[in-house]
């Protein structure tokens, strides 16, 4: 099971990243869980300075933007 963590304050881009992540994982028939992290102190634990950010299985994959659905699928397949 993949662990997807969305780092962000709850802004529109953070919500869009969460939705795109879910859609991509569903399209790939992946088993996954999403955790939304809004505590800025935890962002530093991942070395993230820009949000939104996506962490897949403990590895930062995207920061500061929302990838396209196709790009997200590739990120999840490669993770």
SSE layout:
Elements: E1 2-7, H1 12-27, E2 32-37, H2 40-45, E3 53-56, E4 59-63, H3 69-78
Parallel strand pairs: 1-2
Antiparallel strand pairs: 1-3, 3-4
Structure description:
There is one protein chain. The chain is an alpha+beta fold. The protein has one domain (2-78): Glutaredoxin (3-Layer(aba) Sandwich), CATH 3.40.30. 41% of the residues lie in helices and 27% in strands. It has three helices and four strands. The protein has a four-stranded mixed β-sheet. Helix 1 (12-27) packs across helix 3 (69-78).
Mind telling me the C-alpha Rg? Answer: 11 Å
Characterize the main sheet: 4 strands, mixed
Please give the number of β-strands: 4
Give the overall shape.
globular
Poorly predicted runs are none
Q: Beta-sheet strand percentage?
A: 25-35%
**CATH fold naming:** Glutaredoxin
Structural class: alpha+beta
- The level of helicity is 40-55%
Order of helices and strands: EHEHEEH
Distance between the termini: 12 Å
Q: What's the architecture in CATH terms? A: 3-Layer(aba) Sandwich
CATH homologous superfamily (4th level) name:
Glutaredoxin
Task: Assign the CATH class.
Answer: Alpha Beta
Into how many domains do the coordinates divide? 1
Strands across the major sheet, in which order? 2-1-3-4
Number of helices, where a helix is a run of at least 4 consecutive DSSP H or I residues: 3
Mean pLDDT figure? 95
